[in-house]
Structure prediction request, 373 residues.
Amino acid sequence: MKPSESALTMDLIPSLARLGWSPFFQMHLDNLSDGRLEPARVVGVRKNSFSVSQGKGSRLARVAGRLNHQPDGLYPVAGDWVVMTDHVISNVLPRKNVLSRGAAGRRGKENAQPTRAQVIAANLDTVFVVCGLDRDFNLRRIERCLTLIYNCGLNPAVILTKADLHMHPEVFTREVETIAFGVPVHLVSAKDGLGLVQLEDYLSPGKTCTLIGSSGAGKSTLVNRLYGKSIQLTGSVSETVGKGTHTTTSRDLIIMPQGGMMIDNPGIREIAFWDGDGGMEHAFADIERLALECRFSDCSHMHEPGCRVQQALIEGEITKDRVENYHKMKREMMYLSDRQHKTANRVERERWKTVAAEIKAMKKRRGKERVKL
Ligand SMILES: Nc1nc2c(ncn2[C@@H]2O[C@H](COP(=O)(O)OP(=O)(O)OP(=O)(O)O)[C@@H](O)[C@H]2O)c(=O)[nH]1
Ligand SMILES: [Mg+2]
Ligand SMILES: [Zn+2]
Prediction:
């Protein structure tokens, strides 16, 4: 390590560490830089600008034009560690993990198949699924969110908020626990402060959490309550349809007084998957375990004799809605996985076509050279 490099980084390290800087990122920075470049974390993502921080305040930054032309996913998102050259983000450091989902290419097309991955946030320790105990409460949506989080290889926790609306909100906790094995379920109320202390455990210095859920679920209200003052705008839920109207429109990484960080997100309307591989075995561990006892190893759990899943359904061990949701997601995953394989094959074919063309051109050149001799 050059002296200039160590002096610079040593000075910054304590405040960077509070933002989650670790040897993993340091190694990647060292690979890229000669010691003059500084890292910063993306703390705000707006339409045309970013804010970045090194632990003390934040500053505006723009992205080097080159990054616009990178393949999908390498454009900075909230939580990314980036390399700065003055006020320009010149590189995104490799991510430890990302929360991403499938996004449809054309807007407003309901049920359109995802055509690209949308990276929501990067370098996360916990992803909270926030569900309001009003009309927002929906076990199937929680199942879907958990599958998405596992699919991204991340750690989930469920927050059931607006507990103040019920006399016995614990019944919801028990209901969620039947579909979320080993996932912590926290019952909270931003109104009267119930259960907030438990959430502070996730917010130790250097830790990053993010909140996902529908619009109006109560994500920003929770952030404000944990922060101790209103830093995020909050909205109202329509009485008639029981839905929020996208109060939060940008993604901000908030450095919390507890020491950790929280990324508040706009409400998610559709939870589409992008990766066709993994997640179901954790989110539906009960069904996958039962499936091992089916008579046929390739049982579709629809109508085969000796199907243990169907038996569990009849005996009331699992609910019809859960099994239907399982089948629906399984179909989506298979479609994605199939498409990924096709894309991989096509890429491979294209590569060989290029190689073959290069060989042909080389032979032609050699032929011409020989004629000249
Ligand atoms: N009774 C009650 N209402 C709450 C609670 N938390 C949030 N709300 C209300 O729920 C509504 C929506 O809250 P927000 O925090 O803006 O919801 P959000 O999830 O951030 O919504 P988007 O930003 O649109 O995604 C507001 O009217 C809040 O006052 C709670 O604990 N109890
Ligand atoms: Mg919000
Ligand atoms: Zn079966």
Summary: The CA atoms of residues 109 and 135 lie 25 Å apart. The domain at 98-264 is CATH 3.40.50.300 (Rossmann fold).
